[in-house]
Structure formats: structure tokens, C-alpha cells
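User: Predict the complex.
Assistant: Input components as received:
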Amino acid sequence: MAEAINAEGLTKAFGRTQALGGLDLTVHTGEVHGFLGPNGAGKTTTIRILLGLMRADGGTARLLGGDPWRDSTELHRRLAYVPGDVTLWPNLTGGEVIDLLGRLRGGLNVQRRDELIERFDLDPRKKGRTYSKGNRQKVALVSALASDVELLVLDEPTSGLDPLMEEVFRQVVAEETGRTVLLSSHILSEVEALCDRVTIIREGRTVESGSLAELRHLGRIAIDAELAAVPDGLGSLPGLHDLSVSGTRVRMSVEVSELDSVMRHLAAAGLRNLVSRPPTLEELFLRHYQHEELLGAAR
Amino acid sequence: MTGTFSLLRLVLRRDRVIMPLWVVTLALAPVGYAASIKAAYPTAASRQQFYDLNASSATFIVRNGPLYGPDLGELLAWQCGFVPVVVGLIGLLMVVRHTRAEEEAGRRELTGATVVGRHAGLAAAMLVTCGAFLVFGLLVALGVSAQGLPFDGALALAAEFVLTGWVFAGVGAVTAQLTWGASSARMLGIGALVLAFMLRAAGDSSASAGWLVWLSPIGWAHRMRPFAGEQWWVFGLAVVVTIGLFAAAAALSSRRDLGAALLPARLGRASAVASLRSPFALAWRLQRGTLLVWTVCLALIGLLMGGVAKNVQSMAQDNKAVSDLFERLGGGGALIDAYLAGTMTLFGLVAAGYAVQAALKLRAEEAAGRAEPVLATAVGRGGWAGGHLAFAVLGPVIVLAVTGLATGAAYGSGVGRLVAAALAQLPAVWVLAGIAAVLIGFVPRFAAAAWAVLAGFLVLSLVGSALQWNQVVLDVSPFTHLARLPGGTFTVTPVIWLVLIAVVAGMAGVTALRRRDMPVG
């Protein structure tokens, strides 16, 4: 079983709102997979379908080799889920919730639980109603991470954590070996630091999926160069964008496929200095949303 | 208090359906009572006879307060004697709903960060609630005087309702500051309401401790004396107390942080006990407190009602005229049985309220986002729903058995008979649990309509049967089909039908729940 999650062409509508319009998601066993998209893109709906909480209108979904709707109870023994908005029972303590959810999944590693409570600096004796959002998230995270499961489904798990705790979270996930993690997020640096592969969705559809290296290949490389003289017609070269010229200094972004030809032109013009930088995930991400923003601005 | 006005509009918008609904329905009650008294006791002689029979009856004094005279207005005011309790409950719940419940849901944080003053939320909740009671009072005054009663008395009757609504709105504002959650604020407030009722009942039915009624806002309401020499200054007293309670709530609220409480929260266990490992164990943990409160409250009312029944009996033995009257009405024993049977219907309706609340816990868990993490574990939906529905089904058994026991213990004889009579209410109670399950399964957003259904049955049982509505209408309520016990004859057929309906409804609800999306926002 090489694929922990395989969803194809998922569609889901709530009344007249089309939440998912053909979403694909493939997560390989053992990898940390980033699931990216802005609020309302359909991340949580996808996760709920994968957990068998909601039924897709169309498309197919497989989770750990089973049908997420039909086999949900059995499959849930093998996974742990942290919802995006964690609410706890007001009269149960954090420690009780950690144990209860772990036991309902089928088992909890008590030693690991205590270690995680320590690392996340959580007071497990407080009642649910007295925790802040970040502390509620810690409760759910500790319970999930300490459970004996093979798949972790984390829906924006760090949205309430302070930078210090976010760092702890990164360390803990980075230490995970062998377990599959689906990490939904819109914090790109987190995904960049943790994930082997990412899927970017927009308005309920998958717009990009692959390893970070593959995605970078689809992106543009930023180039900052000092030339002997700026050649004419530089701006009209294919695959060259966002050119800005100040004196003999040129800045641009170049599509990876056209890098070779652009570099020949620059070299021919006499290179004095050159800095190149691969695209960040943020740039990849924004590229898919600029279209939408332009539409928004025109309205 | 900047921003009070905009928050006020928010409160009005949130309550735009429920508020007009209770204002109008409840205002119709005294109008309906007036019409029915006129019809039932058309002559002065018949009203005098009613007065002679009831003015000294401990049973009715405990429930409705003192009967001041034999005229139509006095009979009406007495008939409405329990309305202040209902009105007080509404005021209390409404203020908690718009203060502590908002805060608990985190919405107060949202509005609190905008340009609104510290007390704006509290002030808006109080203003809307008090305003709603004012409109309600106006409708009552106009409606009752339109029945041909003196306007002064109608106004005083309206004022006694407004007064209890206001004071308990103030009580709600204070309890909302004291506790950690909205539900404990409600419980504390309801405790105050029950205490007020008992103080009034004790003061009214005792010759030596009559001053007790002055400790109770419900007692003040009756001391307005509508149609019997109105005492307007009592209303002034209530206004002062309401303002005092509001000021106290505001002062308490400035002394605490958002989300915090004055009664401190204690630390609990760092890890769960070994038994907390199943959906049923979780349901038990979440529901046991509520079950205990309902059982204790209803048992206390049972003690009160049983004690009253005993009084009725001794009064009949002591007083020749009264015992003669009882003989004519079918014997003292039969009269007490009729009274106890009516009490059992009341217990059944209250137990149904518990069943509805226990079943709706499913929906509350879902809406609050607490169902999702549980259902994402190896817990199936059937198991999750079953844990809570077990309380809706078995909880009323405990509530009614203990209440029947308490009634019998206070009455002093026939304990077994009264426990059986209380348990005989169960089939109708279970029908309501079934209705709640159907709503949760099929139309989760409107699951709270189960309360409206219960309210409808309550009206049919308490008002409809007294006003002798058409039997077809009365038959809609499952409580109509139960044998009137003690005293009546028990038949099995309606029990089988009601249980069958409850089982089918429950199964349909759970099946729908297993097939639909979770959570529905």
C-alpha cells in the first residue's frame, strides 16, 4: 500500500455553494504532505470527506486502503485527527480529553503523552473552558501525536500557537518517522520546512501537486544581475517577466524552461555580477491566486 | 456604555422570531383564562361558591397564591398565579443567553474588541429583555380590560408579570457574572427561582410565617393585589431591586476578566480515570450533573405536592362543610386522587423536558464542534448517539421514580401506587425523546423545535383540557392518551402504541443521523 490517501475528482455542494469541484489528492505512505489553500478553499471539507464525516457528491476516495465512508470506524483506529477549530468539553480537564480521545482511537502511549505535555508546556489539570485557543490546540495535538496510529490528519494545527510553540510543533513533526502526516495549512514557511510533497487547492480544485522540487521547476527563478551594458529587446524574450532596469542593474523573474536562453543573452551582454534564487513556496502559491486578486481588484 | 444601541439591535435581530412568539402566546394566556372563567362561573353565586371552596384550600394556595375575593378579576388574578414563575424563567434565560452564553461562544470577544463599552453587552441584554416585558405587559393590560374588566386591575395584573420578569432578568445578569459557563449560570438562576417559589408558597400557606412572601419576588407579584385594592408601591420596590441587581452585575463584571468568573475554577485531574474510555462513559460524564439537578428539583416539587395532598385530606376531616362538599364531588379520596393525577401529568411534562434536553445534547455537541473529534476516532455514530439517547430514555425513569417516591413519602401513604402512577407517564415522555431524535437526524438546524412541540403538548394538557377544546386537538398530545393515575383505570393499548411510536421515531432519527453529513453548522 504505497498510497495512504487517494482522492480523485471529489465534488461536494452545500446547497448552492459548490465547496469542492473536482479535487484530487494523493498522499504517499510515510510522507509529510502539505495541503495548501486559503480559507474557504475546501481543505476542511476534503478532510471531513476523508474521515467519513461527510459524503462526497462525486468522485472517489480511498483512505489507508479502505472506503472512508463505509469503513470509517475501522479506519479511525489507525488515524488521529486534529480539527482546525478545537473545542473541548467545558468540565473535562485537558489531561482527561487527551486520554479519552486516545483511548477511543484504540490506545495511547502514556510515556509519549507525558513527554509531549512537557514539551508543549501544557497544564493538563485545567478545565476545558479555561484554556485559550492555543492551549486547546495543544490538547488535541498531544492526544493525536501520542496515539498509536499510522496516519495523522492535522487541520491548521498551529493557527493558535505562539512562535515558540510553533517551533516545538515543527520539531515534533520533523522527528516523526514512518508515520504519514496530512498537514493542512496556510503558513507556507511551516509547509516548506516540514513537507515532502504539497498539494495546492483553489476554490475546491487541485491546481498544483508534487514535491517541492517539482513545483519549483514550474515556478520562476528570480535573477538579479549587473551587466556591462543592458541589451535592447531584453524585455521581449520569451519566458522573462517583471523586468526592472536601473542603470546597468537588471532584475527579472524567469521561467525555468527558458532559463538557458535568457542566461545566454545575459552572458552575451557581459555579466559582472549575478544572484539567482529559486522560487519560494509563497511565490508558487501566490502565482495561483494572483488571477483571482486581479479579478477582485477589477470588481 | 458606548455601542449599547448597536448591540441592542444585534440582540433584537437574533431574537426576532422567538421573542414576538413568546410575548404574544403568553399574553394570550390571561385573556383566555378571563374568557374561560366568565364562561364557567357566569353568576355571582357560582363565583362565591368557587371562592368558598378554594380560598382556604392549601393545595391551590401553594400553587397559585392567595385568592383575594369572589369577583371575576380576583379569580382571574388567582388563576394567573403561576404565570410570574414562567415569566421569571423567561427573563432569566433571555439575559443569560445574551450575556454569558455569548461570552462562552467567544462572540463577546468579537464584539468587545469593536467600539463598544465594557457594560454595553449587559445593558443591551437588560434593555431588550425589560422592553419585551413592557410590550408583553401592555398587551396583557389591553387584552384583559377588553374582556370587560376594570383597567386599573388589568394594569396591576400586567404589572405583576412585568415585575417578576424584570427582577429575574436582573438575577440572570448577576448569575452570569458568578459562574464559568452559561449552563451553570442558568442553573444558579433557576435555583433562585425555585427558592423564590418555595418561600412564597411557605409564606402563603402558613399563618405565622407570612412574612416569608416578602423575601420572594413572586410573593411581591401577588401583593400587587390586582382587582383587589391595587398596591402600586410594590411595583416601585421591584424597579428599585431590578436596578440594584443590574448595578451589582455591572460592578461584578468590572471586577472580572472576559471569560472569567468570580467563583474560581478549580484544577482537576491530570489524567482520565480508567473507566473514561467509551462513548457511553463520556455521555455519563457530560449528562450526570443535569440528571441529578432535574431529579432533585422534581423530587422537591414532589415533596411539596405530596404534602399539599396530605393537607387537603386533613382539612376535609376537620371541616364538616368541606368534607360534605368533597362527598358531593365523589368523595374525599377521589378528589385527592384527581389532584394527584393532575400532579402526575405535570411531572410527566417536566420529565419530558428532561428527555428533550438530554436528547438535544447530541445536537449541542455537534453544533459546538465537540462531536467531530469523537466521531473521528473509532466511535461509530450509532454508539455516539446511543450514549446520549440512553439518558433521554432511562433518565426519565430515574427522575419519575424518585419524584413518585418523594410525593408518596410526603403524602404518607400509597408510595408504591404513586411511584407506579409517576412511571406510567413514561410512554409519553419517550415519544418526545423520539421526536427530538427525528429532528436531530433529519433537520438538525431545527432540532430545538422539540421544545416547541413540548410547549404545544403542555398547552394542550394544562390549558386545552381545562377549556375543553375539541378532543381531536387534545388527542395530538401523547399525554392525553395516558391513564389518569392514581384513581383511573390503566389500559395497555395506548402504552403499546406510544412506546411503538417512540421506538420507530428513535430508530428513524438515528438512521438519518448515520447517513447525513457531520457536522451540520
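Chain B touches chain A through 35 residues (CB under 8 Å).
Let me know if you want any component modeled separately.
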